Amino acid sequence: MTAILGGFGAAMCWTVAMLCSSRASRELGAVPTLAWVMGLGFLIVLPLVIAAGSLPTGSEAIWLFVAGAGNIIGLVCEYTAVRSGKVGVVAAIASTEGAVAAVLSAIAGESISAAVAAVLALVATGIVLASLEESGAEVADRWATKAVVLAFGAALSFGISLYAVGHVSGDVEFAWLVLPARLVGVAVITLPLAVRGGLLIPKRTTPFVLAAGVAEVLGVASFAWGARDSISVTSVLGSQFAAISAVGAFFFFGERLRRVQIVGVAAIVVGVGLLAVLRG
Fold first, then answer.
1. By CB count within 10 A, which of 63, 78, 127, 177 is most buried?
2. What percent of the chain has pLDDT over 70?
């Protein structure tokens, strides 16, 4: 039951984060939105880090930095993608981070079964189908293509982050796994933007930024809690945020996916779920 509740909680939190950050990014811009989300997340996580006590060692610190940088780059790509692309498509492609981490593991020498290889092929097919926009105005086509490229960049960066986290997840406290992205984000984005006076936001956008920042951290916490009972079950349910985000985007943004895109999103969701089971 813990794994089910944790995975479902993570999916819902990440859906809230995706929808709210999408709304904020479209009104405020990707970088200012990320600056606020990371700043708020840093304030939430900092007390947990202080309570954790022990500091990571040299090699652990390097992997944590890679994890943090990968997460930040991924979020910049994701927030930029949803400014012009469909949230359902961007969320689906970004959710393939686990598949990217699996490929990186294979490159590093970890053996991959035929079943995992088949699932990765299914995910790749889903990405292609989800990326197929109806041909229209040249400018619209160009923006749609840019969103897909950025979404894939997000998946790649998130995958690198997950791969790095995998190297130290058993050696450091949970708080240290969550802190790096927030620390890098505050140092590289939030503080420089604050110095330039770029953190001013309209009142109507503030609730969405705050909700995204809190939901990002709560999603990771819920996932970690559920994974203590079953990594595979928690991963399968957590990955469903892509499908829920597509539904949410329909109601909140009026976004409609073509049938072929719906098939692609479904293939990605199923593939990511199967991958979590096979590698859980």
1. 78
2. 92
